[in-house]
Amino acid sequence: MTTDFEFALSQMAENDRLVRNMNLTHLSDLSRAQTENFRAIWDTLSSERRCEIMNAMVAQAEADIHLNFHAILRRCMEDAEAEVRRLAVEGLWEDERPTLVQPLLGLLRDDRQPDVRAVAATSLGRFVLLGALGEINRDLSREIEDALRAAWLRSNETVDVRRRALESLAYSEDDDVQSFIENAYFDEDEAMRQSAVFAMGRTADPHWARYIAAELHSGSAPMRFEAAAAAGELRLSGAVKILVRLLDDPDSTVREAAALALGKIGGKEAQRALRAASQSEEDRLAEAAREALEELAFNSDEIEEAALMDFAPESGGPNADDDDADWEDELEPDEDDFDAFSTTDDDDDDWDDDEDNLRWVDEEYEETYEDDDEE
To answer: I want to staple 295 with a disulfide (CB 3.0 to 4.6 A). Which of 186, 207, 263, 282 is the partner?
Structure first.
């Protein structure tokens, strides 16, 4: 009796059968023996057929989180066709097993095709983050960063590979990465400058706030997109007013990025703007606004719970021995901790553009915060 897996292999081998009519779900979660059987059929297929199947497999995996083609995708990282190798790496975006690192490093160093080296550099970024979080071996983390740094510094390397290496290195805590980002920001290549702003958002460093603020006004839609995303990653509340205006940007991707950034930053003004945007007739913007509102609500719940646990006297927190402690004084940030661009929730602050200088104006105010749902 033919199993579902064997039937899927037989369909794959029929060159005249349309891939869209094939059920690739039976190639999910393969055993080692099944992977070898798949390989025997796969190697007989034309490069065009392999690319077509790989495209469909990656698309299905993105649409259905329960599908796991990792065994096949790892095998296809060695494929003779560069497009198959590229798609295989892209399809492994969820795989955080350290055993994936060496194959990725091999592609970054030795693959003949820039597109494959670039996607390998991007894929290694999540392992740099895992290293920064202490979740993988430090020696392995260092090896990854060294390989990405070598790709960035290669004089004959393509712009696309270098910029992807920079984006991945942004998670690193090494001091030289800041100089890499700054050099990229002033590069003559527009794509490299966009990657620099993307990297700024990944650093979690408010040092880059002014750069990002300037690019929110860029004449380039891709740059405004990157700046909006970076403002969200750094939680730049001083950018809220600009991001609200970008909800009406001529470019749809900028509008969506602005909505998502507002959801990360939060605050009353952001919430009001997102509620309005969630009713937009533009489906993608409305969906992005609703997603941002969900994140805003989730983060608010987390903050409230953390405050209750960490600061309530009965919790054993910092005020456990002082019933009369002033919680506002305990939580009040030091003004010296902030750069010219605030990263706190001061929604009523305003921007003042003075020729080439972007100036931050603080307005003191007192206001009682109430839950909008209770009003």
So the answer is: 263
Cβ proximity of 287 and 259 under 8 Å: no
Short-list 136, 135, 133, 157, CA closest to 147:
157
Token pair for 324:
């009369």
Q: Hey, what are 298's tokens?
A: 């989730």
240: tokens are 């809220």
CA atoms within 13 A on the CB side of 203: 25
Which residues, in sequence order, are bridge partners of residue 361?
350
* Residue-wise pLDDT tens digits, 312-351: 444 444 444 443 333 223 323 333 433 434 444 444 444 4
Do 224 and 256 meet the contact criterion of CB atoms below 8 Å apart? Answer: no
Tell me how many helices (H) and strands (E) the chain has. 18, 2
pTM of the model: 0.78
The confidence score (pLDDT) of residue 304 equals 52
Burial track 96-124 (b if 16+ CB lie within 10 A, e otherwise): eeeebbebbbebbeebeeebbbbbbbbbb
Q: Could you tell me which residues come within 8 angstroms of residue 188 by beta carbon, excluding any fewer than 6 positions away?
A: none
Q: By the 8 A CB rule, do 202 and 180 touch?
A: no
| 353 three-state secondary structure | strand
pLDDT score, position 307: 45
CA 260 to each of CA 37, 180, 216, 344: distance values in angstroms, whole numbers, following the listed order: 44, 27, 14, 17
Give the C-alpha separation, 54 to 252, whole Å.
30
Question: In sequence order, which residues have a C-beta less than 8 Å from that of residue 267 and are 6 or more positions away?
Answer: 237, 240, 345, 347
Residue 360 DSSP SS3: strand
Residue 38 has which token pair?
Answer: 């798949």
